[in-house]
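Notes continue from the previous slide.

Worked example: a multi-chain complex. Inputs as given:
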Amino acid sequence: MSNVIIGTGSYLPEVLITNEDVARMDTDFDPVRARCTVEEWCRKKTGAVARHYVGPGEGSSDMATVAAQRALDDAGVKAGDIDLIVLSTVSGDYRLPQTAGLVQANLGIRGKFIEINAGCSGFIDGLMSAHGMMDRVGFEHALVVGCETMSALIDPGDFKSVVTFGDGAGAVVLSRRPGSPYGLKTYSSGSDGDMGFIVWVPAGGSKQPLTQEALAERQQYVKLNFPPIGPYAVERMMYSTLESVKRAGISLDDVKWIVPHQASTNIILEVAHRLELPEEMFVIIFDHVGNTSSASIPIALDEANRAGRFADGDWLVMPSVGIGMAWGAACLVWHDYRSARKGKNGKKEGNHD
Amino acid sequence: MTKVIIGTGSDLPERVITNEDLEGMVEDYDRTRAGGLSLNEWVMQRTGVRERHRLGPGEGTSDMATRAAQRALESAGLTANDLDLIVVSTVTSDHRLPQTAGLLQKNLGCQCKFFQLEHACAGFVDAMIVTSALMDAYGYRTALVASSEAGSALMDPKRFMNQSVFGDGAGAVILQERDAPGYGLQATYTASDGSIAEWTWVPAGGTKIPITPEVTAKGLQYMIVDFKHVYPFAVKKMVESTREVLRRAGVSLDDIDVFIPHQTGRNIILDAAHLMEIPEEKVFMNLEHTGNTSGATIPIAVDEANRAGILKDGAKVVMPTIGAGMAWGALYMVWYDPKSHTNGHHNGAKNGS
């Protein structure tokens, strides 16, 4: 149980969609009924300011490739040293082949790839799978990636979907370090398939193929039953945070940072208040990124890491909740790998270089 | 402790399409070009698929997976509440979202954690490897590993080649930790190569090429298989995977009692068997009545072999595969017959979530 993050990377595509841009779109937002502007609605209900969308011809694999390359550079690990890729997405480039394989080919990696079909909880499921496979099969360096092109799944006329979701990719490099005090320690994770239809995309599968009729009925787009999602998300993120912390044998007071799935700023703040934790402990990037599903935690992790917010030995908890429905949190001890490398007079730490 | 299969189940939907049916349905089979052969004669000289099953209207992969899982639970003498983990492999979920794994969980009425792998023909082997790692890492004791595929959802109804090769179906096994030294999953091998991912390709229906009326008019929602490249690759990788997993297990080819390869086609399977000098009577094939059901072939074949009494206690079994991605690998197991171990008990641990 000691696979350590030794590099992070993320990518947000160039097309920026502000709240003002959304206000100009042809959505079902009705300022009269809402008694406010799009900007006011977003600030009050979710905290969204902007989100990024892929450009023409750009897909999940392209974003994931850049994020993964940045994580490799940060780790000082060559593509050839990666022996496992675990990638999570619900918005792959093609029905087949898998986006994970395209990323493998783009980076020139020869290792095994696994693609997990999971949404907002996908990065935690990816970490769990990578971690287990590293321990059991003995993979030394794993790339764990979350990448999503949510803009392709949302109904451009559905205001709430448009302002909630964004595109992006995030990645971490895990290094197998048996016995290390650092790294991933515990998880708490579960699934509730009986609630599967509160977030769903009806058509495009084996039961409901994409026919002209399905397209006319906009069945190719994600349908969200918003009212039950908020309370479920808050409750499951709280539970998985507390449970993973308990399993690590520490208390909530020992935790320095919470890097939650970016469901919305309001949901994250609700979790903070209910756990009686200061808001400053929470890494929040929802305002400028939106909900990027399985990419949101690794993007938040990368942004906070590059801003130098994590110190060596800090306990981090990463809670998530998402489509399936599914939920889970990972608890880890941060390793300041950059200082560790510099601090040893150029004597590099670990066996990865 | 070792991981043994204590129950198997499978499901083939009721609708059967024979080669004669197919010849009347497709538009591109030309007897003159085929040297005067009927479609049945042509196919039986090559892949050897006489008939295949197709989902009925309104059915999806979750329905087949549920029936296969219930049969596997029954054969293990367990109920769904005994499961700690569900891992499903499919590239043809009922809906774009949620995952078929969640619908399976819902149908079975259990609360355990589920994972869904976006893997095709190599999906069962990869799902077993991931499951095994998750069991070791997180203490799950009893897992359902299933693959359910409706290739029919990805095939052009007018073109004979894919229609003749692929069938719909689901297979499931119950994997459990037992104190049974020398039995169960002894060695695994898995690998991927995304640089040749385009050999099996479904261009539309992902995020890069969304389904539109123009796209469906061009048939881009259907699977394209580069059979010229896939055939020799499949033979080579079946052989390589078998040899590698046996090398890891320290077992010789001569010691193997039963080969249960991915049912990719009789010609590919026999070519691989001949290269390894494996007598045909040791090779289990059921594709004549199932076709290639992608990741579901191995668990369906294991279930049929198990129910036919071919898998005796202590039998040495190899399961090699090759599939989209491209991906390949193999499992090596020593068959465990619970009836031969009457002091064995099967009290699955409760939900590990």
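Summary box: Chain B touches chain A through 78 residues (CB under 8 Å). The CA atoms of residues 58 and 297 of chain B lie 23 Å apart.
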